[in-house]
Amino acid sequence: MDKNIPKLISIVETAKFYASLCLGTIAFISVFAFLFLIPFVVDPAISSLMAQYEPEPVTCVATQHIYAEGLRNCTWSSCREGCTGQITRCHQIFVNYSKIPFRHFKPNTDIEWDISNTRLLVNAEGCGYPPTVNCSLFTQQYGYQSTGTPFPCYYSRVYSDTVIARYSWDETLRQLVLSIAIPNLLFATSIAILSYWYCPGCGRTCNKYMHHFPNE
């Protein structure tokens, strides 16, 4: 008997142990990553797709910008950095919008607004986290001295009084697919390999089907 065989078996078993440890860690992290992504990516993306925002930006103009403080005065905010805490300070921007595509807008022309004095949100959730959402830059761009200046926006076909400043159907769908597919694929692959290695029934099942194929 070759003396190198036990040593080779030992190396294989050691490699299998560390591989199993890595696969188990990947499966564990994948579950928590998916649970973390549900409220922050999956649910907002589904809500955005169900709201059916117009993919082509239309014409908006800010009519009023209100800065307020206190829970009673801040029942909503156009932009929030963080989606879980209570609002104690808020910027509320109201807009008029027309369904005329912004690329067809001509300055110094009279526009018939489809909806007047409705709320403007930074995105479908009205909140986010830096650097994606920066409320200081947002209010400078759409509020303060920018009030009255036309800009592109997106309205909801389902909720006509809902207007957002940022939207991309392709990006929203891509984030939804990736946030669902990647964690679940990693989890399923890790569990499948571990089951094949350590579940006796799985190995016997595979061997049973292999008997149906003739040997070369």
From TrEMBL:
This is Protein tipE. GO terms for biological process: regulation of sodium ion transport. The keyword Transmembrane helix applies. GO terms for molecular function: sodium channel regulator activity. Pfam families: TipE (PF16972). Keywords: Membrane, Transmembrane, Transmembrane helix. The chain crosses the membrane at residues 17-42, 176-198. The keyword Ligase does not apply. It comes from Oryctes borbonicus. InterPro entries: TipE. GO terms for cellular component: plasma membrane.
